[in-house]
């Protein structure tokens, strides 16, 4: 009975906070003038141009199935020696969030660049359920296929290194640690509450990072609301919620009407016009995109949070385990190495924007060294925020980090404060 009541209370609190988030974004949209402002003819035209540029399969430089690559198809000996860099996006984007980095001439010359759409995003196929197993199995299969296509796993294949702009999933352990510490303080102070008032204050201040992260994650709670409200959040008010995110993604950088159109086209994916296009080889977009997602893929994006993609267990198939085990070593860790839950198995370079609006640094960075292997590093960018592929400083940092990794794979980073 007690467990049933606790579950009901938890569901009520999640929904209540979800409604709070929905109301908050609505008020922000009103304040910024997005909610009731109908797009102008110029804005609609710029959106059509951006969608055609990103999603029209009939163009030679266009998008094949669900990833974009700078490979021309005529690979000479020099091209075969290039390392392969795979770019993976987050919410609410597609491969197009990497468009500025992909256009770098120095990277074009030094590496084979691949930018992929996650399942349910952009031009990729979709799932009925976005479980960790469904998403990660398909993504792993794609990356392994790319490695095989470009000879990464051959003896003479190109060099390998991993670049990441996200974080290892160790935040939950930090949250549990802070809550546990706070609870112990409260229990101790409750024995003599009058003399232990400072202990109560310290207990609540210990939970400060947790409260700040909950506030920054209010959109996740909004995604737990009934699906018709989630769809409205993504489409209502002339896409005002998405426009708020897109504007904040540029930080202090100038945000032009063309930038707004390209951001919206990147998030929305192909329209009914682009979804009917084909490549010269007759390749088409998946049927699920044509029949359901052409108006908007927002509900599929939200399902990553509704279905617990980031927190559920990944049940690897035998084929996946075999493929991962056969990948050449040299990463500083093995497939079955012991370590904290969520620890990385390969060296990584993590770029952290110190002005991040979505992630609390104390939750995400405390103890992060325990989750990294040899030759890994964390680079803090003082002028960047959450959307590192779009902000000016982090664009340069990403380009240089990939270039350094591709051209100097054995280089060692010297840490400086």
Automatic annotation (TrEMBL):
Swiss-Prot/TrEMBL keywords: Hydrolase, Membrane, Transmembrane, Transmembrane helix
SUPFAM superfamilies xref list: alpha/beta-Hydrolases
Membrane-spanning ranges: 12-36
Molecular-function GO terms, alphabetical: hydrolase activity
Annotated AB hydrolase-1 domain residues: 83-139
InterPro entries in alphabetical order: AB_hydrolase_1, AB_hydrolase_fold
Residues in the signal sequence: none
Protein name: Alpha/beta fold family hydrolase
Organism encoding this protein: Aspergillus sclerotioniger CBS 115572
Upper lineage: Eukaryota, Fungi, Dikarya, Ascomycota, Pezizomycotina
């Amino acid at each position: 009975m007690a467990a049933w009541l606790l579950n009901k209370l938890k569901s009520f609190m999640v929904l209540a906070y979800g409604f709070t988030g929905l109301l908050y974004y609505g008020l922000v949209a009103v304040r910024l003038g997005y909610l009731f402002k109908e797009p102008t003819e110029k804005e609609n035209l710029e959106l059509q141009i951006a969608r055609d540029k990103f999603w029209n399969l009939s163009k030679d430089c266009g998008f094949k199935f669900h990833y974009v690559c700078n490979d021309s198809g005529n690979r000479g000996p020099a091209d075969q020696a290039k390392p392969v860099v795979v770019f993976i996006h987050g919410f609410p984007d597609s491969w197009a969030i990497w468009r500025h980095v992909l256009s770098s001439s120095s990277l074009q010359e030094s590496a084979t660049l691949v930018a992929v759409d996650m399942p349910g995003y952009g031009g990729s196929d979709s799932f009925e359920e976005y479980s960790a197993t469904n998403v990660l199995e398909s993504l792993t299969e794609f990356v392994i296929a790319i490695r095989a296509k470009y000879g990464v796993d051959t003896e003479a294949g190109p060099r390998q290194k991993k670049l990441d702009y996200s974080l290892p999933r160790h935040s939950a352990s930090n949250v549990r640690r802070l809550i546990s510490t706070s609870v112990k303080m409260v229990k101790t102070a409750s024995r003599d509450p009058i003399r232990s008032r400072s202990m109560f204050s310290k207990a609540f201040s210990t939970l400060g990072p947790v409260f700040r992260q909950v506030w920054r994650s209010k959109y996740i709670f909004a995604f737990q609301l009934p699906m018709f409200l989630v769809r409205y959040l993504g489409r209502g008010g002339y896409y005002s919620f998405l426009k708020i995110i897109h504007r904040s993604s540029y930080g202090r950088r100038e945000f032009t009407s063309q930038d707004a159109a390209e951001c919206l086209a990147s998030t929305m994916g192909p329209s009914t016009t682009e979804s009917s296009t084909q490549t010269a080889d007759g390749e088409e977009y998946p049927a699920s995109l044509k029949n359901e997602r052409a108006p908007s893929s927002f509900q599929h994006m939200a399902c990553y949070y509704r279905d617990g993609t980031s927190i559920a267990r990944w049940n690897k198939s035998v084929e996946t385990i075999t493929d991962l085990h056969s990948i050449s070593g040299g990463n500083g860790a093995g497939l079955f190495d012991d370590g904290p839950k969520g620890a990385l198995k390969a060296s990584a370079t993590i770029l952290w924007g110190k002005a991040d609006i979505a992630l609390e640094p104390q939750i995400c960075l405390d103890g992060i060294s325990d989750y990294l292997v040899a030759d890994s590093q964390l680079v803090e960018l003082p002028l960047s925020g959450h959307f590192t592929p779009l902000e000016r400083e982090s664009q340069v940092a990403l380009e240089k980090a990939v270039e350094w990794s591709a051209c100097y794979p054995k280089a060692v980073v010297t840490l400086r404060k």
